[in-house]
Amino acid sequence: MRTPFHHPLEPRFVAPGEHPLRDEALAAVNRDLAATLPDQPPLCLVACPGEPEDEEPERVHVALADGSTHGNFLQPASSAADALHIVAEAAQETVMECLWLAWPVCALHGLGTHLTLDAGRSSWWCGGTDGPDGPGHLHAAVGETDRVRPPRRPNREPRADGTAHGRR
Question: Counting Cβ atoms within 10 Å, is residue 120 exposed (0-12), middle (13-18) or buried (19+)?
């Protein structure tokens, strides 16, 4: 199979397996993307030519499926956990800046979440102020937002047609 000619000064899509730690991290982030923005195609990695002073010949970015990127290139990672944090941060910036929306969003508060480390694990943090434990709460670990369900609200008033909210 012939591959198309690629000019060395243009960005290119990174092939699976070129960056195993980043591929694994991107798979986790794409699970979050699929759970929260199901109509959005998976993110990918794009490589751009590096600068002469760079240690690496290319700079790798997280991109939308069409190759659109935003923000800094991915820094080297020394572990899978480190790669997950770096890729999740870059993915959030690319999604938010290229699509102009907060992502991911807390199901309880409807607020955009922030990336944080919780007990050494990359997680999405919500700054919402509900609850007895004070402001903010852990929304989900990166790669696990598909496990988060909106809270039940048993005290909500019924609709005008007599049905409960969210049920028809």
Answer: exposed
